[in-house]
């Protein structure tokens, strides 16, 4: 990707130190209730936004899994509400894989390094700073601004956004929601494009228990090794290679991006895009294009009881399955049955939460979209915002289910290429540049003022 310049200062800004502190807290979410410890992040962010006129709540299902909700009430109770939605948990990181300490939060040559720097502590920190600045300036907006820093996004939101909407709906409900992903400048033959995530794939995560017959490891012929059978199950799942699906959201994205004619043709061809994605050198971009046009199946966890001299009678697998718009849980079941074939008789399948197996989307024609266009134009006047779908899951899906217009966005500098941005999610050497932090600080404040100001929409 080509690079360019931005209007953000090179010097560290208020978000820089805050994101460093958040990284150092190490709120690692392994999926277990005793992990995350996001209460520490909620306490840290409370100190940032605890200002006159701000209403604060720290709420969650467990003492160690608290989410922060800060509200700056508007002057008109009938005016819309904007929710700036961040999460504070991060996925695990192995220090041996990193060039720098993943929980050191080091500032090196204008970049903050650490787990969560991109996903999504840079956004959470800059939202907190922008919210605090609105409160400090005592900006009298008709509409209400809410900042929420929630727990448990990385493990499905059951102790975070999903829980809040089920148990404290009034605290977080909003007409418009902004959360992570999007806003990375992409340079195309037709000029710069800024993707806005208006849709995301469904998450049909499941557990598979593969059965066999246990026995002594010294006499393997007497048993039916579940681990060997599970290995074949994993092989079949990993080998799944469906044709691409050119759904309406993807077609609209490709046509709005203004790619050169050859690339456009490939990205809209269900056969060509599959072959192209496996060999394209920009792995982040190619993997993202592939995921946005394919049902994906990724077997990621395996567990078996026993020890070296014991043949396991069962093995549990955890599989990450992501659906495209229009694909249902029944479609997923049919695909799995076809892949397992004769092995299906030995496999139990349990979907973790069928509610989120269907892709979600928000309308593009909205006041929030127009505010994003205006705020982005102040930094990138020649860029065009384009609606896009993300292959990953975000907390936006919970709010879309409640009727909220929800987008994933941010505003990054051209120093961060789209390929690097995509490649850093849940990967090694995650980092964010100071320029981007400054851009997002300004973005959230500008969006709130533009969207909630008392003027015709």
The count of domains is 2
How is the main sheet built? Answer: 6 strands, mixed
Helices, by number, come to: 15
N-to-C span: 36 Å
- Annotated CATH homologous superfamily of the largest domain: Zn peptidases
* CATH fold title of the largest domain: Aminopeptidase
Note poorly predicted spans.
1-9
Give the radius of gyration: 23 Å
Sheet-strand content, in percent, reads: 15-25%
**Overall pLDDT metric:** 94
CATH architecture of the largest domain: 3-Layer(aba) Sandwich
Number of strands: 20
Secondary-structure content class: alpha+beta
CATH C-level class of the largest domain is Alpha Beta
Helix content: 25-40%
| Anisotropy-based shape | globular
Strand order across the biggest sheet?
Answer: 1-2-6-3-7-19
Summarize this structure as a short list of keywords or feature phrases:
20 strands; disordered N terminus; 6-stranded mixed beta sheet; alpha+beta; Aminopeptidase; 15 helices; 2 domains; 457 residues; Alpha-Beta Plaits; 5-stranded antiparallel beta sheet; 22% strand
């Amino acid at each position: 990707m080509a690079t360019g310049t931005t209007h953000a200062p090179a010097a560290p800004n208020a978000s820089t130190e805050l994101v460093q502190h958040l990284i150092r807290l190490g709120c690692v979410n392994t999926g277990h209730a005793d992990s995350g410890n996001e209460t520490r992040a909620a306490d840290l962010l409370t100190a940032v936004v605890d200002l006159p006129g701000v209403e604060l709540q720290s709420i969650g299902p467990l003492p160690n899994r608290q989410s922060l909700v800060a509200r700056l009430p508007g002057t008109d109770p009938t005016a819309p509400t904007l929710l700036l939605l961040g999460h504070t948990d991060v996925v695990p990181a192995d220090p041996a894989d990193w060039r720098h300490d993943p929980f050191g939060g080091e500032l090196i040559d204008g970049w903050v390094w650490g787990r969560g720097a991109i996903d999504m502590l840079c956004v959470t920190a800059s939202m907190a700073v922008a919210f605090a600045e609105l409160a400090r300036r005592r900006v009298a907006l008709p509409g209400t601004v809410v900042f929420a820093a929630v727990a448990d996004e990385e493990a499905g939101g059951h102790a975070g956004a999903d829980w809040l909407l089920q148990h404290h709906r009034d605290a977080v409900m909003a007409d418009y929601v902004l959360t992570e992903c999007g806003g990375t400048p992409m340079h195309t033959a037709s000029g710069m494009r800024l993707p806005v995530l208006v849709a995301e794939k469904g998450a049909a995560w499941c557990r598979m228990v593969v059965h066999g017959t246990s026995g002594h490891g010294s006499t393997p012929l007497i048993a039916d090794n579940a681990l060997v059978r599970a290995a074949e199950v994993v092989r079949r799942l990993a080998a799944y290679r469906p044709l691409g699906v050119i759904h309406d959201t993807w077609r609209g994205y490709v046509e709005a991006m203004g790619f050169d004619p050859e690339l456009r043709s490939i990205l809209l061809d269900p056969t060509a895009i599959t072959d192209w994605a496996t060999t394209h050198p920009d792995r982040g971009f190619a993997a993202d294009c592939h995921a946005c046009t394919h049902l994906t199946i990724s077997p990621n966890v395996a567990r078996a009881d026993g020890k070296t001299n014991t043949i396991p009678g069962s093995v549990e697998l955890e599989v990450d399955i992501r659906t495209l718009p229009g694909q249902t849980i029944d479609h997923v079941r049919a695909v799995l049955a076809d892949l397992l074939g004769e092995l299906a008789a030995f496999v139990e399948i349990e979907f973790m939460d069928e509610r989120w197996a269907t892709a979600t989307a928000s309308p593009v024609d909205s006041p929030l979209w127009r505010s994003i266009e205006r705020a982005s134009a102040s930094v990138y006047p020649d860029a065009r915002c384009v609606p896009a779908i993300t292959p990953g899951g975000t907390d936006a899906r919970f709010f879309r289910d409640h009727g909220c217009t929800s987008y994933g966005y941010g505003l990054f500098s051209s120093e961060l290429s789209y390929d690097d941005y995509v490649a850093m999610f849940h990967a090694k050497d995650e980092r964010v540049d100071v320029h981007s932090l400054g851009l997002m600080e300004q973005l959230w404040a500008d969006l709130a003022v533009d969207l909630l100001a008392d003027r015709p929409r």
